[in-house]
Amino acid sequence: MLGLAVLFAALFLAPFFVPLYYMSIVTRIVIIGAFAVAFNIVFGFGGMPSLGHAAFFGLGGYMMGLGVTRWDWGLGTILLGVVVVGAGLGLVLGILCQRVNGIYLLLMTLAVGQAIYGLVFQNARITGGDMGISGAFRDVLPFEIASRQQFHQFAVIVCVAVMALLWLFMVSPVGRAIVGLRESESRMGSLGYNPGIYKAAAFVVSGLACSFLGALYALQRGFVGTDGLEWTLSATVLLAAIVGGSRYFLGPFVGVAVIVAIEAFFQEYTERYTTILGIFYILTILVLPNGILGIGRGRKPPGDEPAPLEDHARPTEREAVS
């Protein structure tokens, strides 16, 4: 929790020392970073790889766009729709993952995500297809945000609040049980836990947070398009979790910050910045197997990795099953 407080202070004060030109990039880091943290509830803590989380993020954005421009919904109704979409899809994926693990789960989530992408893309009459939906989405807010700096601070408050709730979830008995399933599902089952319920809970909580953050991202851009549903966005947050350290709560956020910073820097000098990112990913995996936050902690054998909430009242395997 101390790490979240420090992060909040640094990001909230960013408009005072970050040039206006870079504010949109910093705000994007905040929102996508929080999205990666929410994704990591399933991936790093639950041990369930997913390439379908962009579906949660994108659908949250479409609920905001459609609610404001097409359906004339108020903020409360839109947020209710975001909750229903995020939690509902999370429950569906949680049920589907009961009998699959590893690469099969990865492929299943990818298939579901692509199916939703195709559905949105083909229903252009409602969703705008590849043209997307644009509009003054921020008008739905009960207060006025007149500048990038003000929206950035608003986004920081929302994202840190979401991450704080996710942290509380992970230190709760349910969160500790999810960590225990990652370490040994058979052992947790023998102790009387129902693995299916906890897997579904991980997907529901993660999906709900991701959908909410997708709606916030739509407010920042004033636009919603199919790019928010593409599987490459899911791959980006997965790689961010690995780069930052998937066994650490803020690891995915650090990974997103580094990736977006590298991308923004090299885009100004070369069109082949994706090649540079690819080399960076490879070097990180080879040199830093525990991610950036794992620097100096040494290479640990399987089953003895850093606990998911290292330095934050970490739930160890023994605590998870107690």
What does this structure look like?
- The chain has 322 residues and is mainly alpha-helical.
- 68% of the residues lie in helices and 1% in strands.
- The chain has helices spanning 2-12, 20-45, 53-69, 75-96, 102-122, 124-127, 148-170, 173-183, 185-190, 195-221, 231-244, 251-267, 273-287, 317-320, and strands spanning 133-134, 223-224.
- It starts with a helix and ends with a helix.
- The model is unreliable at 299-322 (pLDDT under 50).
Secondary-structure blueprint:
Layout: H1 2-12, H2 20-45, H3 53-69, H4 75-96, H5 102-122, H6 124-127, E1 133-134, H7 148-170, H8 173-183, H9 185-190, H10 195-221, E2 223-224, H11 231-244, H12 251-267, H13 273-287, H14 317-320
Antiparallel strand pairs: 1-2
Q: What descriptive keywords fit this protein?
A:
mainly alpha, 322 residues, 2 strands
Strand content: under 5%
Largest sheet: 2 strands, antiparallel
User: Taking strands numbered 1, 2, ... along the chain, how are they ordered across the largest sheet?
Assistant: 1-2
End-to-end C-alpha gap? 23 Å
Shape: globular
Rounded average pLDDT: 89
Helix/strand-derived category reads mainly alpha
Radius of gyration over C-alpha positions, nearest whole angstrom: 19 Å
Strand runs, count:
2
What's the helix-strand series? HHHHHHEHHHHEHHHH
Q: Report low-confidence residues grouped into runs of 5 or more.
A: 299-322
How large is the count of helical segments?
A: 14
User: What is the percent of helical residues?
Assistant: 55-70%
